[in-house]
Design brief:
The complex is a heterodimer.
Chain A: H1 2-22, H2 28-32, H3 42-54, E1 62-63, H4 64-73, H5 75-82, E2 91-105, E3 109-115, E4 120-126, H6 134-139, H7 150-167, H8 169-175, E5 181-191, E6 200-210
Chain B: H1 2-19, E1 30-35, H2 41-56, E2 60-65, H3 70-82, E3 87-90, H4 99-107, E4 111-116, E5 126-130, H5 132-146, E6 151-157, H6 163-176, E7 182-189, H7 194-207, E8 213-216, H8 219-231, E9 239-241, H9 247-254, E10 261-263, H10 266-282, E11 290-293, E12 296-298, E13 306-307, E14 310-311
Parallel strand pairs in B: 1-2, 1-3, 3-4, 4-5, 5-11, 6-7, 6-8, 8-9
Antiparallel strand pairs in B: 10-12, 13-14
Helix pairs in contact in B: 2-10, 3-4, 5-6, 7-8
Classes of the chains: A alpha/beta, B alpha/beta.
Chain lengths: 215, 313
């Protein structure tokens, strides 16, 4: 009886060791960057990033009034604590969220007025020029060092922007009207040296529309 | 008497020579700057800034001009290996063709830091690169806005073996190709060279006279294209866009001859490469493999903030 127990424990141990040695831990970025043929699949990477990294973490975006207030009073802190960028230079990215009233539905963007008790800010939510690295880089979740080819890294941004056109812009097209309220999360690009934050241009990743009550 | 005075004079000169001790600070090592070409002022700034920074950090430095020739570039590497250089600050001619030179240097224990252009390899200790793709995405957006999403345009490409050529072109097209009313009527390489760009543009204008804009992969070609357009009496009609932030084009953006350019920061790249090489020689071993340097759009609205090759100081 005792021997049987020891035998069973031994078999279980051997099984666990075999299982452990067959498990390989890899960085998610590296796995995403490979396909069976060894060629980078930017489409799959971008979808994965969107569903598993970007959307679940939108709550970490800084509220736009808080950011603007900080840019006015302490831009150094704003850029150091809330912006992200891949390398060196003055171009930095922020993920922001906010809520405001649509004042204009233009061909290329929505003009949104964000009011608080003490401030009025106007920003543009882009609907035409969905280009660039703002969303990829503002998220801080895609690491250039995991890509052997810079072109693969660039393709990630292109595919993310395509997802915005497919998932976000149709919602805006259908619902945007002057006077309606919109809540949004999106990425912006700012130049730390120039610090020009009037009329921010937001690349949207999530929008909701409502009048008095949320639609 | 005269002979005695002469002997005294000579002796005095020798004594002075012997007393004069030059305080020679021993060099910390040797750094080579291998640059693709010195025939383009942008690369002259890159090379000279890298050399100055390395010298300021205490190294003996020499600049080697590859004249856009991979074989000559390879010779420079072999000479650097034989001469015992500690690091090479490298601006490669060809992303693929230059890899073997890097491999030789690394095998010989010499650290290689690429500046501006990359090689398709993880062998360099670090590659400090302009974010060309993003730069031309921003430029492409401005291009579309300036042309109001319609018109005919020409593209002049750089050296076809340089990744920068394709990163810039792809970034530009990733924007512009979304607009079917913007038609590329011609796309040709002018090797990043001003004179060649002028010749290529002249040929293009023989066939295509109804054009609204030219996008050039660097500022030297932009100025060449502008010259051709001016000679054809079309400079006021056709918008020219460049890339680099060269002195003459920054001035040309100010006075409206060139519509816009994208400012690279060769001094930042060169200084960073020299500083990283110094850290490496001092014993640091962990470096990021790729370090992008942001590129900024320069247009008539913001050109006042910029000077040649960087920010206004």
């Amino acid at each position: 009886m005792k021997n049987k127990g020891i035998k069973r424990i031994g078999i279980i141990l051997v099984f666990l060791i075999a299982l452990g040695s067959s498990i390989k831990v890899e960085k998610l970025d590296e796995v995403r960057a490979r396909t069976d043929e060894g060629k980078f699949d930017a489409v799959t990477f971008a979808e994965d990033f969107w569903n598993k990294d970007l959307i679940p973490n939108l709550n970490s975006a800084i509220e736009v009034n808080k950011l603007i207030g900080l840019l006015e009073t302490n831009p150094k802190e704003a850029f150091e604590n809330y912006s992200k960028a891949l390398g060196i230079g003055n171009i930095r990215f922020f993920m922001i969220r906010g809520e405001g009233e649509i004042r204009k539905v233009g061909n290329d963007d929505l003009t949104v007025l964000i009011k608080t008790d003490s401030t009025n800010h106007v920003l543009q939510i882009e609907t035409e020029y969905i280009f660039g690295n703002a969303v990829r880089d503002a998220s801080g979740r895609v690491d250039l060092q995991n890509f052997e080819q810079t072109s693969d890294f660039n393709n990630v941004s292109a595919e993310i922007n395509l997802l915005i056109r497919q998932k976000v812009l149709p919602i805006i097209d259908k619902n945007a009207q002057v006077g309606k309220r919109i809540s949004f999360v999106g990425a912006i690009e700012l130049n730390r040296e120039l610090n020009e934050f009037k009329n921010l241009e937001v690349i949207p990743v999530k929008v909701e529309f409502f009048t008095d009550q949320k639609d | 008497m005269t002979r005695s005075i002469f002997i005294l004079l000579i002796s005095f000169i020798f004594i002075l020579g012997g007393c004069k001790k030059e305080k020679e600070t021993p060099s910390k090592g040797k750094v080579a700057v291998v640059v693709s070409t010195l025939n383009n002022p942008w690369f002259v700034v890159l090379a000279e800034t890298a050399a100055e920074e390395a010298e300021a950090l205490g190294y003996e430095v020499n600049i080697f001009d590859s004249q856009n020739n991979v074989s000559l570039e390879n010779n420079h590497f072999e000479n650097a290996i034989v001469a015992g250089y500690d690091a090479i600050l490298f601006n490669p001619v060809d992303a693929e063709g230059s890899v073997s030179s890097v491999a030789k240097a690394v095998s010989a224990g010499i650290a290689v830091f690429c500046m501006d252009r990359e090689v398709n390899s993880s062998l360099p200790t670090s590659q400090i690169l302009s974010d060309n793709y993003s730069g031309t995405v921003t430029l492409g957006k401005y291009f579309v806005q300036q042309l109001d999403k319609k018109g005919n345009y020409v593209e002049l490409l750089g050296l076809v073996g340089d990744n920068n050529t394709w990163n810039r072109s792809k970034g530009f097209h990733s924007v512009v190709d979304h607009y079917p009313d913007l038609k590329m009527v011609s796309q040709q390489s002018a090797d990043f060279d001003r004179n060649k760009a002028m010749e290529v543009m002249e040929s293009i204008l023989q066939v295509h006279q109804d054009i609204d804009a030219v996008f050039c992969g660097n500022d030297a070609m932009a100025m060449g294209a502008y010259q051709a357009l001016k000679a054809a009496g079309m400079a006021n009609k056709v918008k020219v866009f460049g890339f680099d932030g060269a002195a003459d084009v920054v001035e040309a953006v100010k006075d409206g001859r060139i519509a816009a350019t994208a400012m690279q920061f060769p001094k930042v790249m060169a200084k960073t490469a020299a500083e990283l090489a110094d850290l490496y020689i001092q014993g640091k071993s962990d470096f990021v493999k790729k370090l992008p340097v942001a590129v900024e759009l320069v247009n008539p609205e913001n050109v006042g903030h910029y000077a040649a090759y960087g920010k206004k100081e």
